[in-house]
C-alpha cells in the first residue's frame, strides 16, 4: 500500500516537472531526440557527401582522357562509374532520410503543441475564455502552432544544410589563403548585424499581421454565424463593405510583414558579396605571383567558387533568422497557453445526499447584488421549481452552483461546502443544463453518451425523442450539425436533456429545459424525469407555471429576494405569483404545438 | 437604384485574370523584374570568364573589370529584391480580390446553402485556402515558368554538343514526367485529406469554446481531448504521406542524374566506333556536359519543390471553386422598376395566395395550397401542429425562400423581391434566440446602421423596456457586449429593440414567448402597440392569450 502511494507521488512529481517544461521550446527538441538523431546522422552524411559528386566527376574525366590516350581500359571506367553511382545513391538516400525525418519532427511538434494547447484550452474556466475573442483563440491555436513548428523545422534543416556546410567552406578558404579569407569574409558579419537589426521590424510587422489575421477570422466567423440575421435585416451589403475594410487592413499589414521578410534577403546577399572585390583583385595577384600565396588558376577558381557558395549560404542564414523570428512571434503568443498540464480527474460522481443552502447572495465581480436571502433545504428525490419575472436572476441563481464566480453564504452538500470542494467534486455533484443546448457536431448517440458506455435509447425515451430519432435517415447515428442546427429547437432541447440525464448527478440544475416543448410532451417528460432521477435533487428554473403545483418546493424570486415554500404557500403570500399562475392556467394552449418544423425539414 | 449588379465571377481563374488585368502596371513590373533578374544573373559569369582568361594569359586584372563584375552582382540582388517585393504586393492583391469576390458570392447564396455551411469550414475556406492560392504566386508558378525556360534552352545546347546524350534525355523525359505526375497526384490526395482533417480540427476549437460549460460540468475534458487528438492524428497521417512524396522526389531525380552521367561516360569509353558516332567527345566536352546534365536536373528538381506549393494551392483552389459552385439566389429585378407598394387600408398588408412549398433535398411538402390575408393594423397568431410550417411561412415572408407555387405578397409585392434597403422599415423579426453580433449594445440594436440617430436607438430600447438597464451599464449604449451583461430575457428584449428601431410596419414574432414570462410578454406587446398605430403583427405562439387577436390555423 505504502509503496504504491509513494510510487503515485513519484508519478505526480514527474508530471509536475514535465508540466513546467512544456512551455520551454527546448522541451520539444529533447522529447524528439530519436527523430533528431536520425536527422543528424543523415544530415551529416548528406552534407559531407556532397563533395563526392565533384570529386568522382573529376576522376571520371581524367579516366576518359586516359582511355582516349590508351593508358586505361573500359574496365577502369566501369569500376569508377559503379562507385560513383553507389556513392551518389548513399548521399541521396541520406538526404531522403534527413528530409523526411525533419518534416516528421515538425509534424510531431505540431501535434504535441496542438494537443497541449487544446488540453490547456479545454480546462480553462469559461470566464477566462470569454475575455478572449473566439477568432483570436482559434488563430492562436491553429495558425501559430503551424508557424512555430515550421520555424523549428527550418531551424533544424538549416543547422545541417547551412551550419555544417558553412563550416566546411570556411575551413577550405582558410586553408588556401587565410589572410584573403578573412578579408573576404569581413562583410559577412555586417550582413548578419543588419539582418539582426531588421529583426525588430520583422517582429513588429509580424505581430501586427497576426492581429489582423485574427480579426479577419473573427469577422469571417461572425459573418457566417449571423448570416440569416444580416439577411433578414437587409444588412448584407453593409457587412460586405465592412468586410472589405477588414480585407484592406489585412492586405496592408500582410504586405508590410512580407516585404520585411522576403525583399530584404537579396540585399543581405549583396553585402555578403562585397568581399568578392578583394578576392578578384588579390586572388589574381596570387596567381601572378605577387600576392600572399602562390596559386595556380585552379586554386583561384576553387577559392572563388567556394566563396560564392559561402555568400549564398550565408544569405540563407539571414533567411533562417527571419523564419526563427516568425516562429518566435508565434511562440510568444502560444507560450502562456502552454503552462499547467497536470489536471485533476475530470469528475468524481457523488452519492445522493441532502442540500443545505443558507443566506446565499450573489453578485458578478464588481457588479451589484443580483439576488440575496437564498435559503433552501432539499433531500434526494425532490424537485424544486424556481420562477420570477424576466431578469429576476433565475439563470444566475442556477449558475451559482457552477462556482464560475464566488458567492456569499453557504451551500452544503453532504455537509461539505461547495466552494471548498475540488473542481472534480463540484462537477461530480452538480449537473447543469442551460438555455443553450450546447450540442456537438456529432451523432445523436455520441451527443448523449459523450464517450460513456451506456444505452442511449432509454434516455431518448425518457425525453420523448425516441420516435423522431427512429424516423431519421440514419437513426441514432444521424449527425446533428454544428450546434445542433439540423434539429429543431425542441429537438435540440430534448437531446441536451437526454445527455444530462445520461450523466446523472445528485444535484441537477435545469434552466428552462421545456421552453420549446408543447404542454403534453412537457408533462410526459416531467413524469419520466421524476422516475429516472428519483434519488437526485432537481432544481428546475422555468417561467411556465402549470407544473409548479407538482413541485416539492417552489422558489419565488422578486426584487432580488428569494423565498422558498410550497406552491400553496407562495400562492398565498405573493399575489404576483398567483396572478402569473392564473393567467397561464387560463390561457393554456389548446393546440399542443411544438416549434420547429422548418428547421427540422432543413436537414 | 439597386447596386448589386452581379459580376460574372464563377471561379478562381477568372478572379486571377481580373486582378492581372486590373493591375496591369504591377503585372508588367513583375514580368520586367523577373526577366531583369535572369539577364543580370547571366552577365557576372561571362565577366568572370574574361577575368579568368586575363589571368591565364598572365596579365593583371583591370580594376574596372572587377568593379563591373560587382556592379552586376549588385544589380542582380536589387532586381531580385524588387521581384520579391512586387510578387508580395501582387499575391496580396490576388488574395484580397479572391476574398472580396467570395464574400460577394456568400452574400448571394440561397438561405438553404447559408444554413448548410459550418462556421469552421467557412473560416478555413476564406482564410486558409485563399492563403495557399497566394503562395501559388509568391513561390510557385512564376519560378516554375523560369525553370521550364531553363530546361528547354539547355536541351537545345546538349543536342548541338552530344546527340546521344540528348537522345538518352529524351527517352528519360517521359519517365520523369510519369514520376512527377504520380508524385503530384498522390500529394494532391494527401493534401485534400489533410485540409479536411485540419478543417475538422479547427472547427472543434470554436465548438469547444461554445460548449465549454457542458464540457466542464459533465467532466468531459478528457473526451474532448481524445476527439481532438483523433482529428489531429488524421491530419498527421495525411501530412506524413505528403512528406514522404516530398522527401523522395529530389533524391530520385539526383540519383537519375548520376546514372545518366554514368551511362554517357561508359558509352564514350566503350571504344566501339558505332557508339562513338553518337557519344564520342573530348575531355573538355565531358566536363561541360556533366555541368549541363546537372543544370537540366536542377530546374527539374526545383520543380519538385514547387510541386509542394502548387499542389496545396490546387487543393485550395479546388475547394474554393466548390464554394463558387454553391447555389445562388436568383437575381432580383434590378434596374427594372419594382411594383409600388399598395398602402391602402382595404388592401391586405400580407397575403399568401395558394402557396405550396417544400425545402430542397426534401420531398416532404411543408405547405399545401395555403392562402390567407392579414389586413393593416391586424394582430394575428399562426397556429398549427408540429411541422405544420408556421416558421416556414415566416421564412417566405422574410424573402429567405421562394414558394414552389402560389404567391407570397407584402403590400401587394412579391416578398422575395423586396429590396434590401427597404426590409428594415417594412418588417421587424424577433426570433426565439437572440443573435449577438460583435460590438456595443448600440450595434446590437442598429446592426451597424449609422443612419439611426441616438434618439431612435434610445426610443427602441424604451419600447423594449430595456432603456433603464442599458443606462445603468458603465458605458451605456457604448458598452461592449459579452454574454454576461444581460440575462436571457433581457437579450430577448434587445432583439425586440433591434426589430423596432426602424419603426417597421409589420412585426413577425417567432416563439417570442418561449423565453419571456407572461408579464413581460404582455408589457412588450402593449409597448409595441402603443409605439406605432396601425402596425401589423403576426406571431407564432404556443399560448393563446386574449391579446393575440385573430388565429390563423395552418
Automatic annotation (TrEMBL), chain B:
Short name of any one Pfam family annotated for the protein: ABC_tran
Residue ranges of the TM segments: 20-48, 60-78, 136-158, 164-180, 247-269
Ranges of residues in domain ABC transmembrane type-1: 28-312
Subcellular location: Cell membrane
Principal localisation: membrane
Membrane-topology annotation of the record: Multi-pass membrane protein
Annotated keywords: ATP-binding, Membrane, Nucleotide-binding, Transmembrane, Transmembrane helix
Domain ABC transporter residues, every copy: 350-554
GO molecular function: ABC-type oligopeptide transporter activity; ATP binding; ATP hydrolysis activity
Keyword Protein biosynthesis: no
Gene Ontology CC terms: plasma membrane
Name of the featured protein: ABC transporter ATP-binding protein
Organism: Waltera intestinalis
